[in-house]
Amino acid sequence: MRIERSLSGNPGSTGEYVLYWALANRRIESNRALAFAAELANQRGLPLLIYEALTCSHPCANDRFHTFILEGVPENQRRAEALGAGYVFYLRKSRRDEDEVLYKLASKAMAVVTDEYPAYIPREYNASVPAKIGVPYYPVDASCIVPMDAIGKQEYGAHTIRPKIHRLLDDHLKPVPRVRLKTKFTARRPALHTSVTPDNIAKLVAASEIDHSVPPSKEFAGGRREAERRLRFFLKENLRRYAKFSREPSERATSQLSPYLHFGHISALEIALAVREYATEHKIIADEFLEELIVRRELAFNFARYGPKPDSLDALPEWARKTLAKHARDERPVVYSREQFETASTYDPLWNATQKELLRNGVIHGYYRMYWGKKIIEWSRTHQDALDTMIYLHDRYAIDGRDPNTYTNILWCFGLHDRPWTERPIFGMIRYMSLDGMRRKTDVDAYIAAQEDAR
DNA sequence: ATCGGCTCGCGCAA
DNA sequence: TGCGCGAAGCCGAT
Predict the structure, then answer these.
(1) Integer distance in angstroms from CA A438 to C1' B4?
(2) Among candidates A234, A226, A210, A13, which has minimal Cα distance to A93?
(3) I need a labelling partner for A46 at 20 to 30 A (CA). Which of A64, A265, A430, A445 fits?
(4) Nucleotide C8: nearest residue by CA–C1'?
(5) Cβ of A168: how many Cβ atoms within 10 Å?
(6) What's the pLDDT at A150?
(7) DSSP code per residue over A376-393
(8) What residue ranges of chain A have pLDDT lower than 50?
(9) How far apart (Å, rounded) are the C-alpha atoms in residues A270 and A145?
(10) HSE-CB of A45 using CA atoms within 13 angstroms
(11) What is the DSSP letter of A57?
(12) Tens of pLDDT, residues A306-335
């Protein structure tokens, strides 16, 4: 692995260890940023210290996300220490606490390595933190299979990025080499460490100064082991059904891994490798799944990284901005308030069921998520209101929200990475979706019944 | 049940 | 410069 891109200073100055800050990829295995930090440490004869944090000043901090993240911590600590690395987890319980642990740890580090991540808070950290610490700072892309840098520019759509990804895939679709640390971390653990065990998670969450009105997901428990369990289940039960049923939500044939991908409990790389191996062994064609996991996911990261902004209508292609502007003042026969959306109180039973899935589980099935978004456009006073509502609901409830993928999914509803269609009110030439269409293609009633039963 | 048109623009072949 | 075709469709004609 090359040592590249120093954003501030040069490695080689003094320090007691190399610090890896698990900002977006909260895992020890299959992590290129951590592997890079380990190589740097070995090169300098220093130990590796891994830092994972959870903050309450995050604008959407609530019980759901806190619980999910905390559930991953004991396993990360165990695996980090098994490598011979140091591990510090710090939960800042109060909104007023400064982010002083990172700065303290960084002040004794030879270099800070972290995750490049083109959205939400991590993106802001990577822009602001380097200037505040006096040591070299390396953000490494540990999220994508083909690193964002290897594409290097904003792509217009799946059809333009696909050939580039496939051309580069052989170079990158291989396991991250096992990390072996030459120097064990033997220093005393820094005092500011929050001990997390399966038993004290609920107590830690309750004591945090966060929004306690969004309960933990009823469906998804966080952590590496849970991610691995779901991957095994998907391979065994659903990979062979995926091509046929991925757009039939009532069949539940999708991987259910997006929450774990979002928090980095598992990597897209290891999922792709496991899927490819299982598919070869069992003579399954996995192309449809790998297209979603690789091409479309990486298109989303490409958009977030190289587009002007991942969460703004300004980032749409010109034809979409034009047609939306033309229809900005169209009459909206039905308009719901944010509260009506949030409480799943529309006239449409399918839409309400998708919103209930979001409220209860923290995800919406990928296919219905598009319908969910299209209807919010139809039922909002302005396009900007619709975007604000979608981002608000995702940021607040979706475990896989605040992610390049979800922002891209949301903007897709406004024409991003899509093409124009027959002009119609409100939508202009943006693709429209209807309840009749959903009924024609999917078993709407089975899905609604499943959401009702799940209460 | 199936089919074509709708409508724009990228990237490639020529 | 022309041409094919695209992230998940709709609608009306047959």
Answers:
(1) 21
(2) A210
(3) A265
(4) A367
(5) 15
(6) 96
(7) HHHTSSSHHHHHHHHHHH
(8) 1-9
(9) 9
(10) 2
(11) -
(12) 999 999 999 999 999 999 999 999 999 999
**Model-level pTM greater than 0.90?**
yes
Q: Which nucleotide is nearest to A431 (CA to C1')?
A: C9
State the CB neighbour count (10 A cutoff) for residue A138: 23
How long is the CA A157 to C1' C8 vector, in angstroms? 14
Q: What's the residue count for chain A?
A: 455
pLDDT tens digits for A213-238?
A: 999 999 999 999 999 999 999 999 99
CB atoms within 10 A of CB A140: 22
Which tokens go with A166?
A: 């496939």
Q: How far in angstroms lies nucleotide C5's C1' from the CA of residue A359? A: 39
Rounded to whole angstroms, the distance from the CA of residue A419 to the C1' of nucleotide B9 is 9
- CA torsion sign for A219, A223, A229, A232 is positive
Task: Look up residue A339 and give its amino acid.
Answer: E
Write out which nucleotides of chain B lie closer than 7 A to a protein Cβ. 5-12
Helix (H, G, I), strand (E, B) or coil at A112: strand
Q: HSE on the CB side for A306, CA within 13 Å? A: 18
Evaluate whether A110 touches A13 at the Cβ level (below 8 Å).
yes
A147 touches A332 (CB < 8 A): no
CA distances from A326 to A312, A354, A416 (A): 18, 30, 17
- Nearest partner of A197 among A304, A78, A370, judged by Cα: A78
A187's tokens: 């220093």
Pairing mode of beta strands A48-55, A137-140? unpaired
Q: What's residue A8's pLDDT?
A: 45
Backbone angles phi, psi at A154, to 5 degrees: -70, 130
Nearest residue to A194 (alpha-carbon basis) of A103, A27, A73, A57: A73
The pLDDT value recorded for residue A13 is 64
What pLDDT does residue A189 have? 83
Near-strand C residues (CB closer than 7 A): A 157-159, 162, 247, 292, 296, 299-300, 366-367, 369-370, 408-409, 412, 416-419, 421-422, 431-434, 436-438, 440-441
Q: Which residues touch A356 (CB under 8 Å, ≥6 apart)?
A: A344, A451, A454
